[in-house]
Design goal:
- The protein is α/β, with parallel strands linked by helices and about 230 residues long.
- The protein is globular.
- It has a single domain, classed as Rossmann fold (3-Layer(aba) Sandwich).
- It is built from six helices and ten strands.
- A seven-stranded mixed β-sheet has the order 3-2-1-4-5-10-9, with helices on both faces. A three-stranded antiparallel β-sheet has the order 6-7-8, with no helix packed on it.
- Bound molecules: S-adenosylmethionine.
- The site of S-adenosylmethionine has 16 residues, from helix 1.
Length: about 230
């Protein structure tokens, strides 16, 4: 039986060094594009949550951009590892806590920005993705910005997967070898992502990554929107 906490603990325990920030997070936070040019001045002192922040690789970037950085990961072990990783690069003021997409350990209307980078579609024991949408909305201020990356159905993650209940798939052939048995939310297209978030969010901006990365189908929806 797949146990997300055990598997991710193991994955992060085996990883010695913190990864670099995601190229596309750098682009979003620092770049200027025809459909996206976030107000960098508004970043200063704003509460930023990296939800499912992994080894903490994007937290240093958030801090450098002027945000007050916060992170959530699914076990206390991973939280300790993130704090250690950040201390190693001189960051001691990030607020990192243990929680899940359906149980975010922060007060209502606390965040100005919430980013879930390659992390919002992991279902674990939760069966309704809508509960994640509600929980993200709960901790965000009205007008706050949500930043998401979500695999397209053609992404390598879904190679060899099995359909689970409608809109969900079970990983069966994990390229990295530790997620077989995990259930993921699988969206048909960007329109379906938008419809799913639209009860609580508006002003959707879409981009997509559609790379053949040396044989790996690196295909993602990037979605930016505001809490209603
Ligand atoms: C592919 S990693 C991405 C990590 C990080 N955001 C990054 O970009 O490096 C997916 C992350 O989602 C976390 N995760 C798994 N299930 C979760 C859940 N139910 N709620 C929140 N995070 C979850 C995992 O612990 C893992 O760190």
């Amino acid at each position: 039986m797949y146990n997300a906490q055990q598997m991710w603990n193991k994955a992060y325990r085996e990883k010695r060094d913190m990864a670099y920030p995601s190229e596309y997070v750098i682009r979003i936070l620092k770049g200027k594009y025809p459909r996206l040019n976030l107000d960098k001045e508004a970043f200063k002192g704003a509460n930023f949550l990296d939800m499912g922040c992994g080894d903490g690789r994007n937290i240093a970037l958030a801090k450098e951009c002027g945000f007050k950085p916060h992170g959530v990961e699914i076990t206390e072990d991973i939280v300790s590892k993130i704090k250690e990783n950040l201390e190693n690069i001189g960051i001691t003021d990030a607020d990192i806590r243990a929680g899940m997409n359906n149980n975010i350990p922060f007060d209502d209307a606390y965040f100005d920005y919430l980013m879930s980078w390659n992390a919002c579609y992991y279902m674990g024991k939760e069966t309704h993705f809508g509960n994640y949408v509600k929980e993200f909305a709960r901790v965000m201020k009205s007008g706050a910005t949500l930043l998401l990356s979500i695999p397209k159905k053609s992404c390598f993650i879904f190679d060899g997967c099995e359909p689970a209940h409608k809109g969900y798939a079970t990983i069966r052939n994990d390229y990295f070898g530790y997620r077989d048995g995990e259930i993921l939310r699988i969206f048909q297209d960007a329109q379906e992502v938008e419809e799913t978030f639209s009860p609580h969010f508006q002003n959707f901006i879409h981009a997509d990554i559609h790379d053949d990365c040396f044989g790996l189908a690196y295909h993602w929806h990037l979605i930016i929107c505001n809490k209603k």
